[in-house]
Amino acid sequence: MQFAVIGNPIAHSLSPILHNHAFSSLGIAGFYGRYLLQENQSFYHLRSLHLKGANITVPFKEIAFNSCDEAFGIAYEIRAINTIVFEKGKMLGYNTDALGFYLCIENLALKNALIIGAGGSAKAVAHILKQKGISVTLINRSKERLRDFCDFECATFDTFTPKNTYDLIINTTPAGLTNNDLPLKKEFLSPLLKSASLAFDLIYGRETPFLTLAKSLDIATSDGKAMLINQAILAFEIFMESQNIAFDPKILRQSMQNIL
Ligand code: NDP
């Protein structure tokens, strides 16, 4: 029973560690690898890999939506898929990023949030926050991708307009992933952070300049590790359900939380 994470680049992905550790902790005979899909390669090529399921990462989440036979729940609504089940020759799509993010902040009393960035992960985060009654504002450096948010009923900006304060500020851009960039200019970001109760960066594995700045202002911070683990747990549950395999959810959670 084989699974994989599909993306480009893919070498950095921690998903194989999480899923393989879960398989061994639960005593399930499964293997989870990584697959580098070339950007010019057809997504349908994945059908020939004989996988039972896959996770999809940058830059294929929207392509996955267009390639799946069916999409369920939030995946259908935001047109982005991060989890695929291969069943009877069909590709079935799900999105676990949205709930994976929300589980990280569900115990906080938050009224409003500012999302920096307007890509696939911003869509997942914006959608779930709106669904849970948290008001959302988005800022992105370019206008084009903000058009995708027309249906989201949230304020969008491509230039900075400091009108409000926000309880939660989320970096959904890759700024700081492999460089020392901030997602917004420091003179704009600092006052926003000062009035926030949490700065959340989806990036994991390193302290980004965004989180360093928030810490220097004594603001609580969270990186993307807990979200990564949550979305992996939810995807694992979907994979096992598709194979009719029962397991102890406590062991699954502990195994993924303890390995990173
Ligand atoms: P996308 O490529 O879909 O979107 C990236 C967005 O960030 C775009 O709106 C882009 O703007 C903007 N952007 C890119 N570079 C910069 C920059 N230097 N400064 C300001 N804005 C920038 O990516 P995803 O949404 O799929 O992923 C974004 C990040 O979130 C990645 O680092 C990914 O690893 C992380 N992630 C983490 C997860 C987790 O579980 N922790 C889950 C999902 C994603 P423009 O439109 O102008 O190009």
UniProtKB/TrEMBL annotation:
Residues 5-84 form the Shikimate dehydrogenase substrate binding N-terminal domain. It catalyses: shikimate + NADP(+) = 3-dehydroshikimate + NADPH + H(+). Residues 106-151 form the Quinate/shikimate 5-dehydrogenase/glutamyl-tRNA reductase domain. Pathway: Metabolic intermediate biosynthesis; chorismate biosynthesis; chorismate from D-erythrose 4-phosphate and phosphoenolpyruvate: step 4/7. Shikimate binds at residues 13-15, 57, 82, 97, 204, 231. Transmembrane segments: none annotated. GO terms for molecular function: shikimate 3-dehydrogenase (NADP+) activity. The active site is at 61 (proton acceptor). NADP(+) binds at residues 117-121, 202, 224. Gene3D superfamilies: Leucine Dehydrogenase, chain A, domain 1, NAD(P)-binding Rossmann-like Domain. Its EC number is 1.1.1.25. It holds the Pfam family Shikimate_dh_N. SUPFAM superfamilies: Aminoacid dehydrogenase-like, N-terminal domain (SSF53223), NAD(P)-binding Rossmann-fold domains (SSF51735). Keywords: Amino-acid biosynthesis, Aromatic amino acid biosynthesis, NADP, Oxidoreductase. The keyword Oxidoreductase applies. Belongs to the shikimate dehydrogenase family. Homodimer. Involved in the biosynthesis of the chorismate, which leads to the biosynthesis of aromatic amino acids. Catalyzes the reversible NADPH linked reduction of 3-dehydroshikimate (DHSA) to yield shikimate (SA). This is Shikimate dehydrogenase (NADP(+)).
